[in-house]
Design a protein that fits this description.
Blueprint: H1 8-18, E1 25-32, H2 60-70, E2 75-81, H3 88-102, E3 108-109, H4 116-126, E4 130-132, H5 149-152, H6 155-164, E5 167-170, H7 181-193, E6 198-201, H8 203-206, H9 216-220, E7 227-229, H10 236-246, E8 251-252, E9 265-269, E10 272-277, E11 291-293, H11 296-299, H12 305-320, H13 324-347
Helix pairs in contact: 1-12, 4-6, 10-12
Length: 349
């Protein structure tokens, strides 16, 4: 049995829209790899719950099969890190092992309480290329809506990443998302104080709808080496604007797997996003404001979240007149250059 079904409509989207648009080699720069046996039973998620309905775990074998099913005939590898709801020690160790076995790069999932020396030791001993962390690890006395980037990526850790030339994958907090003035100010502060950190703004700053951008690029355009991934982002407008401002050398493809195995069509409504899903496929959809079930007939034209993201990218590229060479940069070269730059800086090869 395959991990999930690929139906005739999915194959039609792949063959007619995506197969020839995408290059042969692809790097997914934003992927979670973890096993549920290592979950922390005491972890309480502070944020949205719908992603947990898609898959309970994503071990390396599932990720590899996912790429085989979604991108047949393509050579796909990933930059990996664990999930925020998992036991950090065991899953970081698991990730280090599978990274060495596959040759796929990985980031260490850090805690803001760790010292700079401990961070460097964990990176080097595990063969990691930098850090990923999450707002849920900020000090518990800080209300979720008030968490800042520097609350879970403290400056002593960023200073060590700066010395190492390592990667920092940042999922920005706060309800304002990319446009939030505190997020913008702290990204600018980090780039000015720690210019050697290979800083990635994940999900284009969680700007999933057009109103999430605000005037953020007016400030962020001052940092031309800032990188963005457009993982889990289906907003053609947001992707277009990010490409217009940052350029095709500074955006990277990502999926946020296993979430993008999800079968959904995303729409914007009242300043937020709604994931339209087939009836009964994701239990508890009625309890999540970001999920809405559609009819059986409508569901026949719903494909994978990953395909929806890539179709949005394709439309953005057409709007801006980007070339196949630009698409190859977005899907492979930019990530490869970032990864190999970090590897050489940290390990010397």
């Amino acid at each position: 049995m395959p991990l999930f079904e690929v139906n005739d409509y999915d194959r039609k989207v792949w063959e007619e829209e995506l197969k020839d648009f995408l290059p042969q080699k692809i790097i997914d720069v934003h992927t979670h790899v973890y096993k549920k046996e290592y979950f922390d039973p005491n972890f309480k998620k502070k944020v949205i719950r719908w992603p947990s309905l898609v898959a309970s775990e994503d071990p390396i074998e599932d990720l590899q099969e996912t790429y085989h099913l979604l991108f047949p005939g393509k050579d796909v590898k990933a930059l990996m890190f664990i999930s925020g709801r998992t036991g950090k020690l065991q899953n970081n160790a698991y990730l280090s092992r599978v990274s060495k076995e596959t040759g796929w790069p990985a980031l260490y999932y850090s805690n803001p309480t760790q010292s700079a020396d401990e961070i460097e030791t964990m990176i080097r001993d595990g063969g990691f290329l930098g850090l990923k962390s999450y707002l849920s690890l900020a000090p518990s006395y800080i209300p979720t809506k008030e968490v800042r980037i520097l609350d879970f990526f403290p400056k002593h850790q960023l200073q060590r990443l700066n010395e190492m030339g390592a990667i920092c994958m940042c999922h920005v907090p706060r309800d304002g998302r990319l446009k939030d003035p505190v997020n913008v100010a702290q990204i600018a502060e980090i780039k000015e104080e720690f210019p050697n950190v290979r800083f990635i703004v994940a999900h284009i700053g969680r700007a999933y709808v057009s109103s999430d951008i605000g005037d953020a690029f007016e400030t962020l355009d001052k940092y031309p080496d800032l990188m963005y991934d457009f993982s889990a982002n289906c907003s053609e407008y947001v992707i277009t604007e990010a490409l217009r401002h940052a350029g095709p050398k500074h955006l990277m493809f990502g999926t946020d797997m296993p979430i993008l195995r999800m079968r959904t069509h995303r729409i914007e409504e009242n300043g937020t996003y709604i994931n339209l899903v087939p009836p009964g496929l994701y239990g508890g959809a009625e309890k999540d404001p970001h999920l809405r079930e559609v009819s059986e007939e409508e569901a026949k034209k719903i494909t994978f979240f990953a395909y929806e993201e890539l179709l949005s990218l394709k439309r953005a590229c057409k709007t801006l007149g980007l070339t196949s060479a630009d698409v190859e940069d977005l899907m492979y070269n930019n990530a490869n250059n970032l990864i190999e730059g970090a590897r050489k800086s940290i390990y010397g090869f």
